[in-house]
Design brief:
Elements (H helix, E strand, L loop, with lengths): L2 E3 L1 H8 L3 H8 L3 H8 L8 H11 L3 H4 E3 L3
Amino acid sequence: MPIVVRLDVELAKRKMSVSEFAERVGITPANVAVLKNGRAKAIRFSTLDAMCRVLGCQPGDLLEWVDE
């Protein structure tokens, strides 16, 4: 898939655990794993908004388009 999720990079920068992130965003740790591993097929804007608020970043910091 040409969209790469860079969530692991942003979590590492902030030294934030998956469980802490999941709790603060309001999603399950399993769903965080799906996002981190690139298995997600879609993401709600409300979830993306919450992720950006928790991490203090822009959507472009979390998502990158890569030409196949």
